[in-house]
Amino acid sequence: MVQINLPKNSKVIKGIYYKDKTNSKNIRKVNVYRWDPSTGENPRIDTYEVDMDNCPSKVLDLLNKIKNEIDPSLAYRRSCAHGVCGSCAMNMDGKNGLACTKPHAEIKGDINIYPLPHLKVLKDLIGDLNTLYKQYESVEPWLKTSKKNDQQENIQSKSDRSKLDGLYECIMCACCSTSCPSYWWNGDKYLGPAVLLQAYRWIMDSRDEDRKERLNKVADELKLYRCHTIMNCTNACPKGLNPAKAIASIKKMLATS
Amino acid sequence: MNEKNPISPHIQIYNWHISSLVSIVHRITGVINITLITIICFLVMFLMLGPNNYSLINIFFNSIFGKFVIIFITWSFSFQILSEVRHFFWDLGYGFELKTSNLTGVFVIVGSFLTTLLIYFIGRFFI
């Protein structure tokens, strides 16, 4: 259901202000969403003054600096720091992206950092993605083939392989799904751009023999057709992929088959 | 997962893009248009009831508020039609690249106002 306002326990309040202690002249204010599960308090926005003279270029570096030097209690996911693992997906400056590939110089004014939108918050910038993973499992993202061939490669022509370009690169960071208003309101039923892009990736795989079955499975008023081409997904994707186009391609395949 | 976990902020913090703006206005104008078509049908029905009704409707549409309503209707339909053409191309599988979709989005917004002006002047000076 469309729910514009946040529930009572999710209303964000003003938090702690951490003043700069390095006497640096090059200071930026960083506003970070905080929620501690061990207290019964509402989420809050803590503000950190960060010395930018000694800070590397990406937003993740900024968060690492805060965690290492100012406030070790800050929690966020990160791993590879090179835009490959998709762990550090979050909302920066009102747009989803990977903290490790987003330069903070691109952000004007104060830097606002929130968790991915409309998720249950586990702690600070960590959102609960279990629903998304369950939905991912539901599209059965593995090769289905009757060939019992353990000795040889399963060969694919170059043109068949190129059909997977723009699909296989997805790192499942959930930036797209959590940027989609349709997914906000119907996230329990609508599969969302990330999962539908994956579904399309397996539909398009020439080695897969389950195409019809896969198409029938997603052909659902709620699972697929909640996409209204809002295009927030394509705008958000840090890998430059186009989930909106993938979803439209599924719709087109269903309409023409 | 228990109920105490908060929901992270969504529409409150998310930036508007051209595409999302056109999308929501498309929905709103859609609802407005279907309501307006119903009202227009009723107006036509009133006209059939006699000259008194005609003069009443005539007075309303010649008032400033009435004129505003007419211009708004013209805009609302212009927007809906242009945006629908955009959706039509999407359904055919074209125009999904970010640049293209942003460009067509701007075209819809600017075009809706231009079409409104065009229809206004045609109605004012040629009919």
Write the layout of secondary structure elements.
The complex is a heterodimer of chains A (257) and B (127).
Chain A: E1 13-18, E2 27-34, E3 44-51, H1 59-70, E4 89-92, E5 95-98, E6 111-114, E7 121-123, E8 126-127, H2 130-138, H3 158-162, H4 181-186, H5 192-203, H6 211-218, H7 232-236, H8 243-256
Parallel strand pairs in A: 1-3, 2-6
Antiparallel strand pairs in A: 2-3, 4-5, 4-6, 7-8
Helix pairs in contact in A: 5-6, 5-8
Chain B: H1 18-47, H2 51-62, H3 64-92, H4 98-125
* End-to-end CA span of chain B: 66 Å
Lateral arrangement of strands in the main beta sheet of chain A? 1-3-2-6-4-5
CATH topology of chain B: 3 helical TM bundles of succinate and fumarate reductases
Radius of gyration of chain B: 20 Å
Query: What's the CATH architecture name of the largest domain in chain A?
Result: Orthogonal Bundle
- How many domain regions of chain A? 2
Largest pleated sheet of chain A: 6 strands, mixed
How does this structure look, described?
The complex is a heterodimer of chains A (257) and B (127). Chain A is an alpha/beta fold and 257 residues long. Chain A has two domains: 120 residues, Ubiquitin-like (UB roll), CATH 3.10.20; 127 residues, Alpha-helical ferredoxin (Fumarate Reductase Iron-sulfur Protein, Chain B, domain 2), CATH 1.10.1060.10. Helix content of chain A is 28%, strand content 15%. In chain A, helix 5 runs antiparallel to helix 6 and helix 5 packs across helix 8. Chain A is elongated and about 65 Å long. Chain B is built from four helices and no strands. Chain B is extended and about 60 Å long. Chain B has one domain: 3 helical TM bundles of succinate and fumarate reductases (Up-down Bundle), CATH 1.20.1300. Chain B is mainly α.
